[in-house]
């Protein structure tokens, strides 16, 4: 038999191997596992308004954008009706 030294060595491996793996994968995570330019920069994203005036301005901007889209859709429908390209009208 190998004796108590082998048992001490095996016990040490059972303890140190998982700890060393956790230490390796737990340190310097930014250098190992990051993807460059994955998250947008702060200037490239939309800032959430918190103040009452900012919220009102944002609502007005959204309403104007929605109204503009609605007007464009109506113009497109009128153009389709004028040319007879609507659904079911050409048959």
TrEMBL record:
Record field: transmembrane: 6-25
Presence of the UniProt keyword Ion transport in the record: no
Keywords in alphabetical order: Membrane, Mitochondrion, Transit peptide, Transmembrane, Transmembrane helix
Subcellular location: Membrane; Mitochondrion membrane
Any single GO BP term: mitochondrial respiratory chain complex IV assembly
PANTHER family assigned: PROTEIN PET100 HOMOLOG, MITOCHONDRIAL
Protein name as annotated: Mitochondrial cytochrome c oxidase assembly factor
Species: Decorospora gaudefroyi
Top-level taxonomy: Eukaryota, Fungi, Dikarya, Ascomycota, Pezizomycotina
